[in-house]
Write a structure and sequence with these properties.
Elements lengths: L3 H16 L9 H15 L5 H8 L9 H12 L3 H10 L8 H7 L5 H11 L1 H9 L15 E5 L7 E7 L9 E4 L7 E4 L5 E6 L3 E9 L2 E10 L5 E5 L5 E4 L14 H6 L9 E7 L9 E9 L9 E8 L3 E8 L7 E4 L2 E4 L9 E2 L5 E8 L2 E6 L2 E7 L7 E8 L3 E9 L5 E5 L9
Parallel strand pairs: 13-16
Antiparallel strand pairs: 1-2, 2-5, 3-4, 3-6, 6-7, 8-9, 8-10, 10-20, 11-17, 11-21, 12-13, 12-20, 13-14, 14-15, 17-18, 18-19, 21-22
Helix pairs in contact: 1-4, 2-4
Amino acid sequence: MSSDWELLEEVKHQVELKSGLTDRQSWTQKDYDFLSFYIENETGCRLSVSTLKRIWIRQYHRLPHISTLDALTQVAFATNWQQLKAERLSGNVSTIGSPKSQRKYKLKPNTKKIAVAVLLLLPLILVFYSMQEVLKKEDTNHEEVDFSYRKTVDNALPNTVVFTYDIEEVQAEDFFLQQSWDRSRKVEIFKGTTERTDIYYIPGYFTAKLIADDRIIATTPVHVTYEDWFIAIRQPMSNIITFGKEHWLAENYLALDDQKIIAKGIDINQKFQQAFYQVRDFGLDGDNLTHKTTFRMAPLEAVDCPMISIHIQGVYGYYWVMLGNKGCGSELFVTVGDTQHNGKTEDLTMLGTNMYAWNDVEIRTQDKNVVLKLNSENVFSTSYKESVGPVMEISYFFDGIGMIDNVELQDQNRNVVYSDDFTVGPEQE
């Protein structure tokens, strides 16, 4: 029988064939990002880019963790690592190249091109998938790990956060600290240390994670607040560019000056994500609220399906409501608490509108029953079971140039707990 190392090489080769990523010597960061996305899409298991790099360029001294081997083997041969080894020992290799596995994982010639196009075309979708981690019940009870933080400034950005941890008793080869849902904001930590600082460049209610190899061993919420609205653009998603009030458009709504966006190095002819954040403890029950806002987008040649994602973040869960141009309903998602609606598997075309005109949107929730209004018309309703908890953040994500107005939050008695109509522009203050 081939050694474990030789078998791993065969698994890697099959993964390359399945994903369309051949010629590994020429792989770039984007190829590793795609491979991570592809494996998670096929198996539901997320393997970090750093883990994949170590495996593919042989930067390891022992076999990867069994969960990693299982994920790779599932992609390669539709089985797990131990089963594959057992079949090799018995001489039964029917799983490899069997008609069943070929039907399940048959590679279309343009798979790579399509998938890479999806990654480039739909940054909001990737953010949606990543942020679903906020709702997941992470299994952190198997090991007792101390993990806490303190902010170094209040209501200001950038904000250096000091994390304190104890990983001395945890058995693993590699350790990481990830400051939020964003996997690009992950740093390596080592045994023998107890502190690590990290900088938050944008506000939000985040879940920081301690990671040992490929498993999350502890989490802690990090509430990075800011004194006012905060605007940032990602291009690409791993690169955050922030904009102060001097970059705001001098109008009675909140937007950025196009020329100042370009002056900051943003290529408006390529995909980018623009975000507006208002982060504070609103003193508002996320299961009984009314949220209102008005929005529109500017047309861009690079954006075929202009979309906005409205995000309301609670302590325990969140709202993620996507609206898009008419005809783009297949790309939309709605998440409230523990309930999810996918435009790929159900009709969400009622959430389509003219994104280039001003639109009024209202989200009203009473006892976890949600009604969505678009331009004063009831267009969607749903409900959820697990509490969202107190509201700690509202934010808006556009896949291009967007603008907002008339933001309002009400409690269950219709009392206004927050409002901003932006009637005083930055140059008038």
